[in-house]
């Protein structure tokens, strides 16, 4: 059965706002000093960056351009384009803040058309750096003489996937891949294009792209918060077996079997309210002052959506990019949204509020946001003790006009998942329509 959607045609526009945001870090020091008159090593064109981690290379492409006299960087992730416009040069270093995330690329010139530096994660449990090199790309040249087209590996379709961490714990996923031959004229390297993603019960791995060669595949993504590398070898029985590398030290193995009927457990049935509980009871500080509670007069008699999120979370940003414009178009119908922010444990309250405020401004969030706790699922569950368990960020809670919780949805399938994203939006609207009709 052919795969039921084209990832290359997936709607990437919803993610563009992700790139417009930026958050300050109180851990940034000389790397974010005020820009000086020093010349930036960034020159217009397409660059190929490589993150070196765990003995592996995670390649990614980015474009450098000029906007109103200032340099901009646009990360490429499949069809997604993430524009970064907070760039400062001080001395011989240039710092490129990575969108809404508390991270940056810090680079300096390493010869003509070359950069060296690091991907710096300020908000990790312990801030870390991943070495980075980049080289400006020239025009590709067709291969001279005879050329034999690389045959397809045959991985297009839907796959039943199991990931296993280094401690032996496993979790299910659905892989959706699309493989195609490279455009003519033939260009080195001899490989076929591959796009896709993985869906899990806690969210998706967003836009992945790479290639297939011989009996192997490789896909990567770098969105500022995550640097992922997926490799696999096709086995004689047609299954896939490979490795998943994440950031500085994350590693899992994965196996996959082609299965057009592969699907995950129902996201609306993974958690629920504890026995005897029907309503949420919380009061958290709003990021603009005061407190926010579902019992406030503003929400009485309305359908209310409670979004559990974090500014550090790419899947949460995908959901916010959907919810923010949706709210502006639908709030007059008698529906409200409350965003509950769960920020990194190392953040003090002022820092956490600042990050959420920046996110609110840059993503044009018109609904209320509150600071609810830290980015730990067990700790988050304690802030909402009426819920059985918090399994993921984001988690979306639907409350009816009587103030009773009617549905808890775990995770979010974002625009990188194609048809699954369209179904996610359709299911959201169906639930809201049903609750408003009551």
From TrEMBL:
Gene3D superfamilies: Glutaredoxin. SUPFAM superfamilies: Thioredoxin-like. Residues 273-437 form the Thioredoxin domain. The keyword Metal-binding does not apply. Pfam families: AhpC-TSA. It comes from the Bacteria. The keyword Signal applies. Residues 1-19 form the signal peptide. Keywords: Signal. PROSITE patterns: THIOREDOXIN_2 (PS51352). GO terms for molecular function: antioxidant activity; oxidoreductase activity. PANTHER family: THIOL:DISULFIDE INTERCHANGE PROTEIN DSBE, THIOREDOXIN-LIKE PROTEIN HI_1115. This is Alkyl hydroperoxide reductase. The lineage of its organism: Bacteria, Pseudomonadati, Bacteroidota, Cytophagia, Cytophagales.
């Amino acid at each position: 059965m052919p795969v039921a959607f084209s990832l290359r045609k997936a709607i990437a526009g919803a993610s563009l706002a992700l790139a417009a945001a930026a958050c300050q870090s109180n851990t940034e020091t000389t790397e974010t000093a005020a820009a000086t008159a020093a010349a930036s090593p960034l020159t217009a064109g397409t660059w190929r960056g490589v993150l070196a981690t765990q003995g592996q290379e995670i390649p990614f492409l980015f474009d450098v351009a000029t906007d109103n006299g200032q340099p901009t960087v646009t990360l490429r992730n499949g069809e997604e384009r993430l524009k970064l416009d907070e760039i400062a040069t001080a001395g011989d270093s240039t710092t490129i803040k990575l969108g809404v995330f508390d991270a940056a690329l810090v680079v300096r010139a390493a010869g003509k058309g070359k950069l060296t530096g690091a991907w710096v994660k300020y908000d990790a449990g312990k801030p870390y750096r991943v070495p980075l090199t980049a080289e400006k790309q020239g025009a590709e040249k067709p291969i001279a003489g005879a050329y034999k087209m690389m045959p397809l590996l045959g991985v297009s379709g839907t796959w039943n996937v199991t990931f296993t961490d280094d401690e032996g714990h496993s979790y299910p996923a659905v892989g959706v891949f699309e493989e195609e031959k490279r455009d003519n004229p033939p260009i080195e390297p001899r490989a076929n294009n591959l796009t896709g993603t993985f869906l899990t019960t806690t969210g998706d791995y967003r836009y992945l792209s790479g290639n297939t060669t011989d009996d192997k595949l490789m896909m990567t993504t770098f969105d500022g918060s995550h640097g992922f590398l997926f490799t696999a070898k096709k086995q004689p029985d047609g299954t896939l077996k490979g490795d998943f590398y994440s950031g500085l030290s994350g590693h899992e193995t994965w196996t996959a079997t082609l299965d057009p009927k592969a699907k995950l457990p129902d996201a609306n049935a993974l958690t629920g309210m504890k026995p005897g509980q029907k309503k949420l009871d919380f009061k958290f500080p709003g990021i603009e002052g005061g407190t926010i509670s579902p019992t406030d007069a503003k929400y009485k008699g309305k359908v209310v959506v409670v979004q559990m999120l974090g500014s550090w979370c790419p899947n949460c940003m995908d959901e916010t990019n959907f919810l923010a414009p949706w709210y502006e178009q639908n709030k007059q119908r008698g529906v409200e949204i409350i965003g509950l922010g769960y920020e990194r444990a190392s953040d003090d309250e002022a820092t956490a509020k600042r990050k959420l405020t920046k996110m609110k401004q840059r993503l044009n969030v018109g609904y209320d946001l509150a600071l609810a706790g830290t980015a730990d699922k067990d700790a988050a569950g304690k802030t909402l003790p009426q819920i059985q368990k918090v399994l993921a960020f984001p988690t979306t809670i639907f409350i009816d006009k009587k103030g009773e919780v009617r549905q808890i949805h775990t995770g979010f399938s974002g625009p990188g998942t194609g048809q699954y994203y369209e179904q996610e939006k359709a299911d959201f609207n169906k639930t809201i329509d049903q609750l408003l009709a009551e």
